[in-house]
Give the backbone structure.
Amino acid sequence: MNTRDMILIVGVGSAHGDDQAGWLVADELARRLPDGSFFSVRKASVPLDLLDWLGNIKVLHLIDAIQASGCGENVRRLQWNSGAMLPCERSSDECRPDRAERAPASSRDDKLPELAGARSGLRETMAGGPPGRSSHGFSVPDVLRLAEQTGMLPETIVVWAIPGSSFQPGARMSEQCQNNICRTATQIMAELSVAYA
């Protein structure tokens, strides 16, 4: 790829507590990526903003906060595939719907964090349930489905889910989430440098 804006990186968030995570990772990536590269880094207040930016995009990296159940939660790498959000820890992993469907929905659901941007609806989609609600209006899965229906969906969509616990208006970012900002940016940079060098 040698065309500018072929890879879009979007941090979804707000100014409230851990919901800032997507924005802060986007800021860190914008600082680290070389000028004049074929990467575009943006920040979105609502997932619906994505639809304005998908022209000529082949790969989308989306960064959002998740509602974590415990302090030990790690950043999750997920991949959108055939209308479902699937766990996929490395870019070389094969993420297929049939892998997620092997386990009963109830056992898959137990292992899924409350994915968020203060409830972006990803958890319900990953568990095979109905689309979730989002404080952002349209959920991330809703927007990805809409992009698919309109022929705008990029070839590859990776979602980076950063665990957090504090999403209330005026809340401060939790230490757990702060610790994951640079870690997530480093993981994304490593993937970008290997896959798109």
User: Anything to note?
Assistant: Helices lie at 21-32, 97-101, 105-110, 122-126, 140-149, 175-195. The longest helix spans residues 175-195.
